[in-house]
Structure formats: C-alpha cells, structure tokens
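Objective 1b: paired records.
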Amino acid sequence: MENIRITFIGCGNMGCSLIGGLINNGYPANCISGVDIDDTQRLLINNLYGIEMLDNSADAIHGAHVVVLAVKPQKMKDTLLPLREIFSHEKPLLVSIAAGIRLGDLARWAGEKLAIIRAMPNTPALIGTGAAALCANDNVNDVQRDIAESIMRSTGIVIWVMDETLIDAVTALSGSGPAYYFYIMEIMEKAGIQLGLSKEQARILTLQTALGAAKMALESEHDPEDLRKQVTSPGGTTERALKVLQEGRLDELINKAIHAAFQRSQELARILGGDK
C-alpha cells in the first residue's frame, strides 16, 4: 500500500469510517483525499484526519490509484457518468461501497475496461468491528485485490466471494444483520423492565449479555449450536425459555426474514441498475 493514493468520493458515515480506519492504522494522511458536496462535512473530515478535501470529483481523481465510491446508491449513476472520460485516462481501481449497485452497472457508467470491486460493509465498521464482503470484476489483478482488502480491513473483517449474486446473501445476513440483533436487544430490554428491573439495569444487562455471547462464539472452538447446548441445563430456566422460542418457530421466522432481505436486495439491484 506504500505511496498508493486513495480518493474517497462521498465522505458520509461509511466513507468517514474507512478514512478514519486507514489513518488509525498508520496510513499517511497525505496519500488520502476526499470529495464531498457539503461544506460542513469537508471541514469536519479535514479537521479530524488532516486529509485534503475537495468539492470537485474530477480534480480529486487525477493521480489517484484507488477511488472509493461512497455516494448514495441513487446518486451513483449521476456521479460516474461525468467522470467516465477521466477514468479512461487515469484508470484507477474503483471500489464501490454503495449497496445494490452491481459490477456490470458500475462498468456501464464508469467504463467497461476499468478494474472494479464491489464491497458490502455493515454499520459496525463505524466503530472498527465491521464485516465486509468483496467481489471483483475480471479486470482486477492480485495487487489491486490486496489493496482493496487492506482498505476494507481497516474497519473490520473481510471475505471474498467469487459469485456476485452472493453479495445479496451478504447484504441479507451481515449488511442488514445488525438491525436484527438490535431488535432482539430491544425486546429483551423491554422484558427485563416488565419483570421489575430499571431501564438502565435492563439495558446494561442486555448489552453485556449480547457482547459476552458474541465474544464467546468468536473465541470458542465450538459452533453456536454446541455453545447453546452447553448453557442449557436439563429442567432449568434456559431450557424452559428455549422451548417457548422453538414452539413459536423462531428459527423459521428468522430464516424467512433473511430470505426477504435477500429478495429485496435483488430487487433494488435491478431498480438501481435501471432494469425494466
């Protein structure tokens, strides 16, 4: 990654988190630049990280080896089309973190011969505990794959998928996944309050329990099913609670929810790509 110049087009929450991740991992600020149309955001990013901030994408692309596309999905086409000629001369690696925008559509708008990587991060990247999946088109070489992985790894873990359709599965599982856990935490906290705990007590117990369970699963050699069995004593409270969840078909409900997110991700890709 030495002397690789990286430009971020769009410096909202996710773009900002990647910039911060790179800086916190020792990447030089003078090798990073950003573009944002909002004056306040440009000033904020400059003050936080000391990188060059511009209001013009065309100027920022010159000399960039990597361009991270962090604009809203609905704005991607309008962002790329005016830059197509510049891309053809500069030939940077494009890394898109815009949800739902397919590699083929990115190439259609930015240039068919460009090396393009599509990334699907999730919001815990904002605190350095994200999970991202990457998929590359045929123009991406091994060096560029390593560069993209290093950028995304600055805010969490990274996996690669060869089949782009799997990005929709990633979106449904980890992209939307934090909201599923937040919802479960919300329900548990309310139940604790109903049982007599204060809101503060119910909240801290719920959050620490979620953290502890995730940490145990990450650090254990056992899978979640084995861990569940280990903490479920016959005739105990946990067994009674799990029986209610199983009788209520919680497994089927969660599976159905993830499949619904998967289908919606496919629909959005078609809509955002302009498919009829």
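Objective 1b, second protein:
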Amino acid sequence: MEILYDDRSAVLRTDSDSILLTADFHLGFEEELTKQKGVSFPPQQENILHRISVLVDRYRIRKLYILGDIKHTITADTPFNWQLIPEFMKALMDIVDTHVIPGNHDGDLAALLPRKAPIESVFGVILNEEPTIGLLHGHTWPSKQVLSAKTLILGHNHPTIQSVRVASAPDIGREERKRRGASIPVILRSQLDKNCVRSCMSASQESDDTKGVAITLPSFNELFSGVAINRLDSGFRGPLFENNCVDFLESEVYSVSGQYINSIRGLQKQFNEIVK
C-alpha cells in the first residue's frame, strides 16, 4: 500500500486498486462568509466536483471516502442544504463510488443523501489492505477495530500554516510592520499512542500493538482555512489530541503534494522568531 498526496487529498494505491480520501467539504461555508463580510463568495460545489473528477481520472480511482463534514451547518434544515447537497451528492456518486463517514457537522445528513449513498459508522471504518488503514473524521474515539489499524487517517482539524508578510514604506517614514498573510493547507503525520487511547476508552492494554500513525488531512474546500499549526497557541480538537494520545508538537508537516516541510515544533520556533 502506497499513500500519495495531491490537491488536499490522499490516494491509497496498490498494484491493482486506488482509493481517494478527502475531508471537510463544508459546503455552504461561503454562505456564512457572505453574511459575515458582506461580499459574495463563489459556491464551491462545482469546483469540488471538478477537482475530484480530475483526481479520479489521474489515479484511476475506484472508491472515494469522505472523512466527514460534507456540510457546514450542523443541522440539515437550511435552504442551501436542501437545494444543493442532494444534487451535489448525486453528481459525485455519478463520478465515483462514494462512501461517507459522518463528521460533527453532518447532523441529519442521511436526509440529504441519495438512498443508495453508503453512510459508514461515525466511529470509522478499516480498510483491510496491508498495512491496514483506519478512516474516521476525528471528533469521536475510533472503534476498537479501527484502532487496530497501523495508520489512522483523519479530518476535522483542517491544519494550515499561517504566513506572515512584512510591509514597510521608508520613503514616508513608516517602519517595518508585520501582517498576517495567507493560510496554507498542510498535511500532518503524527505518532499515536494506542494504549493511551485504550486507557481513555477503558479498554484492555495491548503490549504488542502500542504505536501507530495518525495522518490529518486539510479541508478540501479552498475557501476554508483552519488551525494555524505554527502559532504557539495552536492545538487540535478531538479526543485523540485533547487527551494527548498524539504527539502534536513532534508531528511531521507536509505540503498538500507530499513534500516534507518541518515538524510543528520547528515551525512554531520559526514563526515565533518572525513575529518578535
């Protein structure tokens, strides 16, 4: 099993098969932005469908797993959800066999999906490849079966790096000033203490299966930012991170194309030096 990264997503590839993993579409987020900013933002559903179609063709994808948060509002009862999400999901399922692992924003999601849309357990699913892969959104504990996987792939926290730009105008006597720049989506690869998880879940400890890997994908929605992991006050939500079962600061940070950048600890040190 090989894990590739492309366009904010992961591709699980074997000699005979390819599976696409995406997370956190947050459809309808642009509606909230419009209300907050007073400026219209373009709908993202067509952009998302196009990008997934490109990935499906590029890697000959057989199956897509969405790791939660298809919609942005927690409840289903908004005009945007009823008007657009059923149509979006039908179009997506026409492109590729699609499976949904519900996230914390996916309340009442089943009412919006086509009848044949497979909705998986909120506690995740396991892919019995070699090595095994567990998939979940990240706002719940994994099932015991999912925890047994060598690698867990999550959404939920939308990791980004916050850039800083420097502005100055010496001709008019304005000193150098630092300003917040863009949020750059990234992928995290973290060490997972499985017995920490078992202890929190009141499950039996296992001496022969203590360590794993947790991979966190960014939001697939290009309008959505997320947690700036290079800020000193950053931290992830969800039981795995909030209970310190994941080594957050030593997490490896990768670009959305899979290039290693630094550890979170290293990026925070750099960012702290820049903003002093």
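DSSP finds seven helices and 15 strands in the chain. Residues 2-162+183-275 form a domain with the Purple Acid Phosphatase; chain A, domain 2 fold (CATH 3.60.21).
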